[in-house]
Amino acid sequence: MTETREIIIRPGRYRQFGPPEGATFCLVTNSGLLNSITIEHSGGYPEYRVFPYDEEGQIELLLRDSIPEPAHVLVVSPNCFFRSPRQELIGPKRKLLAMACNSTPTPMHAVAHFLDMIERTRPDRQQMLVDRFFDRGPKVDHMEIVDKRHGTRAVFEHLNGDYEWNIQAGFLDWGEQQISPSGEISVLPADIWQFDARLALAINGEVALRGLPILHSGEVSFLREDQRRIFEALRSMHVSPIIAKVSKGVIVEVRAVGPEGKPALHMLERMFYVDSRYRTIWELGFAVNTTLEVIWDNMAMNEVYGGTEGCLHIGLGLTPYTQYHLDIICPDTAIYAPDGELLFGGDKQRQMVPAD
Fold first, then answer.
1. CB within 8 A of 115, min separation 6: which ones?
2. pLDDT per residue over 291-347, tens digit each?
3. Residue 349 in 3-state DSSP?
4. Which helix (H) or strand (E) element contains residue 234?
5. Is 227 helix (H, G, I), strand (E, B) or coil?
6. What would the pLDDT profile of 51-82 be if each residue is shown by its tens digit?
7. Cβ pair 241, 259 in contact under 8 A
8. DSSP string, 47-89
9. What is the domain partition of the chain in residue ranges?
């Protein structure tokens, strides 16, 4: 990454951390960025420290040997893959936020933009949406995934005790970690580190894939230019949706609504042909970051875009088991109860307008 731009870290504006309560603010970032980053001494922290991070897994060594307790830790690592550390290494007196900025290319202007989005994040608003979702969701026997604009409907049988529900939203407690910008509820058929191609979410019907795709790369060898080429084809789905017929959580047929969507259709078909596991809807993400503004490009941190009412995204594949993980943000889609009650998203959704 050769782009240079001064980045300002403002710890006092990161509301997810809560009050410092005597904690040291710790920035963990790549050595090549140290001269481009300034930490504003804000928020009432007694000390501000910086730790270089240039090798995958190094965070565990830093937590074990260098980062003090108590601490609020922010990880900004666009040049090196960051894997969440084991929970026991976080310890009882640390809180950790990690920017999701390596699975897609993230230049410095994007780092600066999403740091602004972290400052704007409303953990209280997120917690309200999370609480409402989990208050209403268990009371219905299934959810309906509906895109009124394109006439699609699918049934999601969500009451399965084997499903893995994850929350990356709201305020951090001591001993917790979040991807940042935060703001997502996700459901998978199993733990994220236990990928099994025989498993799937119980989804049946049709879903409309229209919106902004995010193509995450895995840890296996890949070329950024290949990732870019695949994304450029998939992004045509923001103009014309791809309708996916789903049976037991597996996409069995795709079609483009209009000719503008053909590049995305053809790329999806190629991905299905090369690795049939991409046909499986491995994740439904319910994004609740209602203050986030996307960058209209292949940016991992776009994933938590919640519009104004919450926004669904659909995940195909799962790194590191598949080369890529494809998330498709679908702002036209809403979640309803069987009786028509709106559970998530909705017609009043703030539209995601591309900047071409």
1. 7, 8, 9, 76, 99
2. 999 999 999 999 999 999 899 999 999 887 889 999 999 999 999 999 999 999 976
3. coil
4. helix 224-234
5. helix
6. 999 998 899 999 999 999 999 999 999 999 88
7. no
8. -EEEEE--STTHHHHHHHHTS-SSEEEEEE-TTS---PPPHHH
9. 7-99, 125-344
